[in-house]
Amino acid sequence: xxxxxMPIFKSWIPEWLARSIIFTIxxxxxxxxxxxxxxxxxxxxxGVQPTDVQYAMVLTYASAVTFLALDFRITKYFAPRKYxxxxxxxxxxxxxxxxxxxxxxxxxxxxxxxGIACALICSIILNMVFSRLSSTRARVIGYSIFYAAIQxxxxxxxxxxxxxxxxxxxxxLFFGLILMLIALLFVILxxxxxxxxxxxxxxxxxxxWIGYLYYLTFSSVIGYILIYGQQLxxxxxxxxxxxxxxxxxxxxLFIVRENRLKHPLINLQIFKAKNFVIGLxxxxxxxxxxxxxxxxxxxxxxxxxxxxxxxxxxxxxVILGTAVSMAITARFILMGISLxxxxxxxxxxxxxxxxxxxxxxxxxxxxxxxxxxxxxxGVSTGVLFVPIVSFMVSSAPPKVAFNAAxxxxxxxxxxxxxxxxxxxxxxxxxxxxxxxxLRESLTETNxxxxxxxxxxxxxxxxxGNDMYTSKGASNAYLNYFIKQQILIRSTKxxxxxxxIGLLVVIVILICLPGIQNxxxxxxxxxxxY
Length: 529
Description:
The chain is an all-alpha fold.
């Protein structure tokens, strides 16, 4: 039997077990991004700033995104089992280094390696899944399961991290990953055929390695600019200006190179399809709007003083909302309902989430008040993800449609990075504005200020403190209360901006001509990322 006709799994492996193994490998491959589920713990462990943690996440993401375009050719050379073992080995070695080292620069390098390993493993898994699916119905369901796994991976690993870090140090997250990888290695060795392939072996010639280096470099540079831009005061910083010029030069060289090559890393001719570009923009905008949950979790943890373990019900609500809505959305897509109408519905649901949050964000709220809005958030992401990707892929010309996956994941990366940039900038702006408004009313001539201070001081005196301690404690409590109110007000202002932006997007989608008639067209040869 030809190797490419041989089944990937051994004959004694039942179909349900094969699918379970595939799903398990996919979830574990996404573990690298789970490390960032507790940014405060990571920043404290390595002794770095929150923006450094953000950039580490972006760097890992950029590494995965860019390698996927290169990996499209490499998977046709290696046998799947051998390639998976290489990915597991890379991930294990980098995790072992991170377990023993607290060096931040070394962690960033390991993050790049883990991004490559994640892309490598995901690529094999996706080929294993979608090479088996021929009907449109099966492929839509496959899309839904894959993207549901991506969406729920973050809250699932946030729960895991919260439980583990409650009793152990941060580096034990790497130890947990190593154990998972070792167990997975044994499963792969036992269950998969060593000679099985997806297609005939194609030698690694005319692979655009230089284009890949361009792609990785300018993605890392734009990520740095977006994350550190606000901290360095954007164009007032010579570092940002130089990096901006470097990014433009790299991007220009990359575009020129890809247009000249017969076998480019990414075929840029796909941008000639107008509706495909609209799909990319939708994916980009979607990731900006969905990138605010970190602010919500931060509010629950800081303002409401909720222990991470008690945030678990909120994460479970996100998981349930995502899973249920994706299953229902897949049915609507298969029924032939307009993709753009489903997308508009998803944005409306997300607008409901922001409206709900505006009503309940306060210093007296309870964690249970945010289970429903985060469930609504999960529903909105579940409704939006597959239709936007399906719209984008269906809009691409058939000859270059496989490139849609590479550009789609880059749009998600760019949207994710931009959401953090918008968050950093808007939070600073809204906090400054809220601080100015609050300080205007808190002056020594305001009689309410002295009354409030006296009441706080009296509360400390009644608790048995002396006059000196009570006075100092009352001033400290008032400052804490002011900072809390500034955070609440700035959070509401940020949600206001996001809600207005969503309404603008909804109106534009309703008014845009020509996008209502896009029909679902998912080709067998295309693999989503």
